[in-house]
Fold:
Amino acid sequence: MNLLDIDQLTWVHHTGDDSGGPTIDYWGTILDIRDPGHIELLYRWEPMSHCHFHRHRAHTTSIILEGELHVADYVDGKATESRVRPAGHRAHGGGDEVHREWGGPAGALVYFSIYTEDGILVEQLNEQGEILRTVTLEDLKKTYRKQVAKSQGA
Structure:
């Protein structure tokens, strides 16, 4: 599988607003789920578009494949640090990092490898840091099954 040939993949489009924050507009696809607790994903951002404000609850490794990914960390609802991750950059977090991510001027394509011990992957948050939605491995397994069925014409 060529991860840079994005047209061969089945994408889920995420849009909306982030409870008073920036407009949400990004895409995701599941590459593989391996039990127990491993998942591989690709996410892509259009130029200067954002994903949901969130906190990782699992061990997450990311590799920027194209473009650049902007990341801003938050503590008690305030941005504390921001950085730009260019193509080729690899990062790892152990979970519980509250942040916002967005694509750079040319967008971004990012590979994620995630490992969860308890099945919880991410918590989507509002601007006050309250949990709006918890995303679990089981949630993504359901999405994966739908993606596979769609790609096979079922």
In short: Residues 48 and 103 are 5 Å apart (CA to CA). The chain has one domain: 18-149. The domain at 18-149 is CATH 2.60.120.10 (Jelly Rolls). DSSP finds one helix and ten strands in the chain.
